[in-house]
Amino acid sequence: MLTITKLPNGLTVASDTMDRVETVSIGAYVHAGTRNEAAAENGASHFLEHMAFKGTARRDAAAIAREIENVGGHINAYTAREQTAYYCKVLKEDAGLAADIIGDILCHSTLVPEELERERGVILQEIGQANDTPDDIVFDHFQEAAFPGQPMGRPTLGTTRIIERMKREVLTGYMQRHYGPSRMVVAAAGAIEHEALLEMVKTHFADLPAVAPPAPKRARYKGAEFREERELDQVHMVLGFEGMPYGDADHHASLLLSTLLGGGMSSRLFQEIREKRGLVYSIYSFAHPYEDTGLFAFYAGTGEEQAAELVPVAVEELRRVQHDVTMDELDRAKAQLRASLLMSLESTGSRCEQVARQLQVHGRVIPVKESKARIAAVTVEDVQRAAARIFRSTPTLATLGPIGQVPRLADIAERLAA
């Protein structure tokens, strides 16, 4: 049973009570991430996520880890472009401890200078690891090419230069501006009653700052090309376009388009490029909606010589899907999307995250029945229309590795328009 309460200070509290489970996931979801950062503070959201576990007025870093693991629970966090999340999963009798710890790290983090310097080193190592992982960093280059010179295009981790110089005051200032109750949802899913959660939140989140965070700048998709020659065994490439935001009428059609185009072993790109031609080991597409825009793209890793064949074949699939979609493949995509939705509901963590995200994006939690109906209602014509909208926008291309055989973006755009 889903119950939602908005407290007088603007903090939203939501519980999704699940029968026949013995655990509970509790999380605080801050409606701010990389796109809320100024250029000089890029990486602050992620830095704060790390620092939250490094000590509070009542607990040092070791105590935070020890207390949650003493009861067999686990605690973690993540930073995305529009959200930063802190969450625990514990046995139902330890829900109070989970709420206590999350509230403590959000309200009373000390950001001790010595810990900050240690964690700065950890994040610099994380950036270095990402730079050394081509099938990871290529997505950052793609994002920057799609949204050049904008918060939405900056890397979530920040850059080495900025992180090396980031002062404690930057982190405290960012936290004070964006971690207010009006931009936060505390959600729980599993073996918990709403009134009990409310009491925990009132007790442990009482010291959130009363602020009105500034709205992020509107993202404006541009589309561009990034190319980097590297001595690698494979070319790593992401080719993409402007996609649909969450509220777009073609949102579900774009999700189904991604599924049938590159969402599994039966998808068009996988079958044509891997199974029939043997040009790749890994190829897949994705649709990433944001609040005011979106991205639709596919990733492929291929050999230097194979790149010249792969790109025209993939582009032809993008052209063909705009006017040739069968009911069989659409039904298969619907089954995959519906199954993914329903399987996620069996996880307390997934349900907790979905509730928070939907409240922040839509202002309500979308019932499962409604989501299933929207998926079922998508027609072949809807998918073809969404494909035409997406693939006729300006393309973005990011490639790194031995890229000599990868066609230029202008050539790809010309093929798409033919």
What does this protein look like?
By secondary structure, the chain is of the alpha+beta class. 45% of the residues lie in helices and 19% in strands. It has 16 helices and eleven strands. The strands form two sheets. Strands 1-2-6-3-5-4 form a six-stranded mixed beta sheet, sandwiched between helices. It has a five-stranded mixed beta sheet with strand order 7-11-8-10-9, with helices on both faces. Strand 4 and strand 5 form a beta hairpin. Helix 3 packs parallel to helix 8. It is globular.
Order of helices and strands: EEEHHEEHHHHHEHEEHHEEHHHHHEH
Structural class by SSE content: alpha+beta
Which term fits the overall shape? Answer: globular
Q: What's the mean pLDDT score?
A: 95
Q: Please tell me how large the radius of gyration is.
A: 23 Å
Cα distance spanning the termini: 52 Å
For the biggest sheet, the summary is:
6 strands, mixed
